[in-house]
Design a protein that fits this description.
Protein name: Outer membrane lipoprotein-sorting protein
Order of helices and strands: EEE
Number of strands: 3
Strand content: over 45%
Largest sheet: 3 strands, antiparallel
Shape: elongated
Strand order of the largest sheet: 1-2-3
Distance between the termini: 37 Å
Keywords: Lipoprotein
Number of helices: 0
Organism: Caldithrix abyssi
């Protein structure tokens, strides 16, 4: 049996030669149709 929903917390780091940036977000998904992304910190 597979769940129809999921919740995640993640961070994404972008590294360029001139700068670095990190973004944090929370993601709620109701498969397969709906997803909500909340950006919590740039």
């Amino acid at each position: 049996m597979r769940a129809n929903s999921s919740i995640s917390e993640l961070s994404m780091k972008i590294i360029k030669p001139e700068w670095t940036r990190e973004m944090r977000m929370k993601v709620w998904a109701l498969e397969p149709d709906f997803t909500l992304v909340l950006i919590t910190a740039p």
